[in-house]
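Quick log. Single chain, no ligands specified.
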Amino acid sequence: MDRAALIRVLPFGVFIVLLALRGLLPEGSAPFGIDPRWLYALQAGAAGALLLWFCREYVELAAWPKLRDTALAVAVGLAVCWLWVALDEPWMRIGVPSAVFHPVDDNGDLQWGLIAVRWLGAALIVPVMEELFWRSYLMRWLERVDFLKVDPRTVGLKAVLLSTFVFTLAHTEWLAAVIAGLAYAWLYRRTGSLWAPVIAHAVTNGVLGIWVVGGGHWAYW
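-> predicted structure:
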């Protein structure tokens, strides 16, 4: 793996490894006396630090998209968010959803520090981290190993479908994930700007987070 691939894979990889390690903790455990719910801050913080460290090398993020592409991205992000909530039949999920992140204290009061960390990570760090990996790297790499020379507007159907399939495997809401993956890939192909799927992804996660907190739908987090 060359440096161009490494800097797009590493933030995502570190985030996933820390997620897996957090999932291995016994229920009710508090490593080093730390509430395990705060470990999400470590995940998001580590990924965010790597993104900042390599930010000057992400050439696909150098130019902001056109205003109409930004508006389109916002609309797509809102549509994907609505579908993510609406597609909630049992057959549309892999496994049974559970509220593994429950930012409520013993008195039933919301813990706004935990909520802020989770929302900021999901709405600001995860979209950049995931779109650099799923779309900018993996989708284009499936088209051609020398992926930096691939114009996203020329990526074929095979690369789009394969990258979306792998993207889906990382989510329990498989049907919503298929639609989201295809929507974000379509934005990247249509606009040629990675910012378009990043913005859409951020809108999806940000609005979904507001809905989660407003209604206590913690299983979506």
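The chain has one domain: 64-220.
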